[in-house]
Design goal:
By secondary structure, the chain is α/β, with parallel strands linked by helices. It contains 6 helices and 10 strands. The strands form 2 sheets. A 6-stranded mixed sheet has the order 6-7-8-3-9-10, sandwiched between helices. Strands 2-1-4-5 form a 4-stranded antiparallel sheet, with helices on one face. The structure holds adenosine-5'-triphosphate. Adenosine-5'-triphosphate binds next to helix 1. Keywords: ATP-binding, Membrane, Nucleotide-binding, Transmembrane, Transmembrane helix, Transport.
């Protein structure tokens, strides 16, 4: 059996005392691609922030690579792509600089970039199809290309686990395909993925398991729900996860 990469046991999270997640348990093993699905505001981002220790648990526990999260120090084993940078973040950095920043945790800020760093940055840019944009300011890229830049930054750190918050939301078809290709390469190298998604699109065949969050709890953990009803056309791949005990219709996401 593959090693456990993420284990969440009976976790509860709240903001300012308001509960958002309650009694959530989740296991991700090496080589899996687990998609977290659910309606807006159901707590998907909160769940992955809790896995990363970016929000504290009010109950339960998180284990990363077999270590209790509060004692875990090997953060370079994890690449994180947060939800989209707001438009006009004002960052004048070039694509190459942003991707190179993904090497910092590996090389230490004070050591100059070496050949391995440069090669990792070049490989990550090729993986997302942006090698020809290396010198361009990030602000001049489309939203989808900016998202690919953030994915390349995470890949450049050569992580074992990628955690992605809606990597394809509002991203054009070309960027979605580029992302699916990059993910395939990452998986072929033995990587593990936890991602939040609304539309699976070209990612669908890569997903090994879906976890559906509803009203702060996990109501489904298993096969990827099929697109339903009039959304079933091939070009419309919204996911409509249902839970047995819930009436249909509550689930549109
Ligand atoms: N930093 C915060 N402070 C206070 N409340 C928050 C914070 N972040 C999220 N929330 C609230 O927690 C709930 C869950 O939010 P979360 O972002 O986890 O949902 P989500 O499922 O990822 O939603 P979406 O699909 O819209 O991204 C929402 O009601 C949200 O308003």
């Amino acid at each position: 059996m593959n090693a456990t990469v993420i284990q969440v046991d009976h976790a509860a999270v709240g903001y300012d005392g308001r509960p958002v997640l309650r009694d959530v348990s989740l296991t991700v093993t090496a080589g899996e691609v687990v998609a977290v699905l659910g309606a807006n505001g159901s707590g998907k981002s909160t769940l992955i922030r809790a896995v990363l220790g970016l929000v504290p648990l009010s109950a339960g526990s998180v284990t990363l690579f077999g270590a209790p999260q509060r004692r875990f120090r090997q953060w370079r084993r994890i690449g994180y792509v947060p939800q989209r940078l707001g438009a006009g973040s004002g960052v004048p950095a070039t694509v190459g600089e942003v991707v190179a920043s993904g090497r910092l945790a590996r090389r230490g800020v004070l050591r100059p970039a070496g050949r391995a760093d440069r090669e990792a940055v070049a490989a990550a840019l090729r993986a997302v199809g942006l090698a020809d944009r290396v010198g361009d300011p990030v602000a001049t890229l489309s939203g989808g290309q900016q998202q690919r830049t953030l994915i390349a930054r995470a890949l450049a750190g050569e992580p074992e686990l990628l955690i992605l918050d809606e990597p394809t939301a509002g991203v054009d078809a070309e960027s979605q395909e580029a992302f699916a290709r990059a993910l395939r390469g990452f998986l072929a190298g033995g990587g593990t993925v936890l991602l939040v998604a609304h539309e699976l699109g070209p990612l669908r065949p890569l997903i090994s398991r879906a976890v559906v969050v509803h009203e702060g709890g996990v109501c489904h953990d298993g096969a990827v729900p099929e697109p339903a009803g009039h959304h079933a056309e091939p070009d419309h791949d919204h996911v409509h996860p249902h839970c047995d005990e819930e009436p249909a219709g509550l689930w549109s996401i």
